[in-house]
Amino acid sequence: MSDRYERGEKLLRKVDGDKVADNLIARYDNLAPDFTRYLVEFAFGEIYAREGDLKHREIVAISTLATMGGCDAQLETHVHGAFNVGLTESEIIEVVMTLIPYIGFPKALNAMSVVKRVVEKRSQA
To answer: What is the pTM of this model?
Structure first.
C-alpha cells in the first residue's frame, strides 16, 4: 500500500467515517480496484491532504455538488463529512443559502432537501 493510499484512507475515514469508507472501498474494489485506489490516493491522499482546513474543503464540495445537481448521494456524503469535520448545522445551511443567487432556487432546494435529510438522520442516530 502506498503512502498516498494510507494518507488518503486516513482522511477518508476522518471525513466520511469508518462505515462509509469501508462501504465505498468494498463497493468497487472487486469490480474496479484501480477506481477505488485512484479515489483514495488522489481525492483524499493528494487533494484533501493538501495544507488547509477540512471544513473549507467540505464547503467547496457541498457548493460544487449542489451546483452540478444530480449528485444527491455524493452531496449527502459530504454534508455528513461537513458535520464530521466540525461544521455546524447553521454553517451548512448558510452554504446552501449563499448559493441561491448563483445556482437558482431549484438546485438550492434540492441541496437543502439533502441537508434536511442528513440532519434528520443524524438526530435519530
So the answer is: 0.92
